[in-house]
Design brief:
Elements (H helix, E strand, L loop, with lengths): L6 E4 L4 E4 L8 H8 L2 H17 L8 E3 L5 E3 L4 E7 L4 E9 L7 H20 L5
Parallel strand pairs: 2-6
Antiparallel strand pairs: 1-2, 3-4, 4-5, 5-6
Length: about 130
C-alpha cells in the first residue's frame, strides 16, 4: 500500500494511524481532510497529547466507549479508535456528533474494523 498516509502522529508513547480498508480507502482520513483548519488543529492537539503523554484524563476530550473502542472528541466531531499491542492507536471512523449517545451502528463498524485490522496484520497483508 505505497503512498498511504498511515501515520497521523508519531509520539513518544503512541503512534496514531489512520485505518485503511483492503481497497486503500480511509473514511477517517477523508473525514479529516474535509474538516476546517480549526477543527483539524483541535484533533491534532489531542493526537499530540495522547501520542506524547500516553493519556488524556479529560473525558470531554477522550473517552472509553467500551468493547475496546475509544473516542477522540474534538467538538463537535468524534474519531473512534482502538489500541494495539504495538503501541499504536488506529483511527477507524470520523463523524460529527449529533446526539448524546454514540450511535450503535458506528460503534459496531469500529469493532468490525478493529477485527479486520487484527486479521490483516496477523496475515501480514495490512502494511503491504
Amino acid at each position: 500500500m505505497k503512498g498511504k498516509e498511515f501515520v497521523a502522529y508519531n509520539g513518544t508513547k503512541f503512534t496514531i494511524e489512520w485505518y485503511f480498508d483492503s481497497r486503500g480507502f480511509s473514511q477517517s482520513l477523508d473525514y479529516f481532510y474535509a474538516m476546517t483548519n480549526s477543527q483539524k488543529r483541535k484533533l491534532l492537539m489531542l493526537f499530540k497529547r495522547m501520542g506524547d503523554f500516553g493519556k488524556i484524563s479529560d473525558k470531554t476530550k477522550f473517552r472509553n466507549e467500551n468493547d475496546g473502542i475509544y473516542a477522540f472528541k474534538p467538538q463537535p466531531d468524534r474519531f473512534l479508535s482502538f489500541f494495539t499491542s504495538e503501541q499504536k492507536i488506529i483511527i477507524t471512523e470520523g463523524f460529527q456528533k449529533k446526539s448524546n449517545k454514540l450511535p450503535k451502528n458506528i460503534k459496531d463498524q469500529s469493532i468490525r474494523i478493529k477485527n479486520e485490522y487484527l486479521k490483516r496484520t496477523q496475515e501480514g497483508s495490512y502494511y503491504e
